[in-house]
Write a structure and sequence with these properties.
It is built from ten helices and three strands, in the order H-H-H-H-H-H-H-E-E-E-H-H-H. By secondary structure, the protein is mainly alpha-helical. It has a three-stranded antiparallel β-sheet with strand order 1-2-3.
């Protein structure tokens, strides 16, 4: 059996064997507690695989034991099922097994980091992320915003997820936790690093920068909203959402700009390596004044 046909059979068999996960996926996506943005991540992952296979004119050189990682992840899914773990936990090794198989078949790699990450982002886990990450992110945003406000001479202290200013309590509520901004930043980062073909280390650098950008942007947003919610600055009601949108656009712009700089740096390093290895470079011919052209 030729490799492309074998890959299609393996993918089809894996998709059929994981039917309980897809049933949970549809139910979770349609659930009102989650949003449908995971479908965008799933569609992006499939488009990246299609783009890789369409652009490959010859089969990839496969690593040794190419089916080892998908098999181990599928085994982890079976053990999680036998242990009676929740469908959300069982879905994680299931989608990673599918991503590992697609990574081998489409990219010739055992682990294609953006593909793995997009597969996880595709899961309908918004409510769970808000439950587990929402409070820590709100506390972090509160601590950093307090530092920013104190630099401006405002005597404010943090009490949990509340900002106390002269007895007036301003809450950093769940929608301002930054979970959705973090999800969007991760989606943008993984998609761009995949399109630019970043190496794993450069991808991890981009991810770390994106996380730091989101944390800082959320703190600035919390500090800006403090002025409106405390009454120091009087703005119309729509200003609350506008401030959040401005910070979201600014965060996305910083991430895109940083990834472009990392890409230019990678191209520059490749050109330097080409010079160092003595590869032939284009010759520049200077025409003398008056010479025929």
């Amino acid at each position: 059996m030729n490799p492309p046909l074998a890959f299609k059979w393996h993918i089809s068999a894996l998709l059929l064997s994981l039917w309980p996960v897809w049933r949970w996926y549809v139910a979770g996506t349609l659930d009102g507690s989650n949003d449908g943005w995971g479908l965008l991540a799933a569609a992006t992952a499939m488009l990246l695989c299609w783009r890789a296979r369409r652009g490959s004119h010859r089969p990839h050189a496969l690593p040794a034991w190419p089916l080892l990682l998908p098999t181990l992840l599928l085994l982890a899914y079976l053990l999680a099922t036998l242990a009676g773990l929740s469908p959300a936990l069982r879905a994680i090794p299931a989608v990673l097994a599918l991503a590992a198989l697609a990574s081998i078949g489409c990219f010739g790699r055992r682990i294609h980091l953006p593909l793995f990450a997009l597969s996880l982002l595709a899961l309908p886990l918004t409510a769970s992320l808000q439950f587990y990450l929402g409070y820590p992110l709100r506390v972090l945003a509160g601590s950093m915003s307090v530092a920013l406000l104190q630099l401006n001479g405002i005597a404010v202290v943090r009490e949990g997820t509340l900002l106390n200013w002269s007895g007036q309590l301003i809450s950093i509520d769940a929608p301002c936790s930054g979970v959705k901004m973090l999800w969007a930043a991760m989606y943008l980062t993984y998609t761009l690093t995949a399109l630019h073909g970043f190496a794993p280390l450069k991808s991890m650098a981009a991810i770390a920068l994106a996380v730091c950008t989101v944390v800082l942007a959320n703190a600035i947003r919390a500090a800006a909203l403090f002025y409106t919610e405390s009454g120091i600055v009087h703005l119309p009601p729509w200003a609350h959402g506008a401030i959040g949108m401005i910070m979201f656009v600014a965060t996305a712009s910083v991430i895109v700009s940083a990834i472009q700089r990392l890409n230019h740096s990678a191209q520059h390093d490749a050109e330097k390596n080409g010079h160092a290895n003595g590869l032939p470079q284009p010759q520049h011919i200077h025409m003398a004044k008056g010479a025929p052209t």
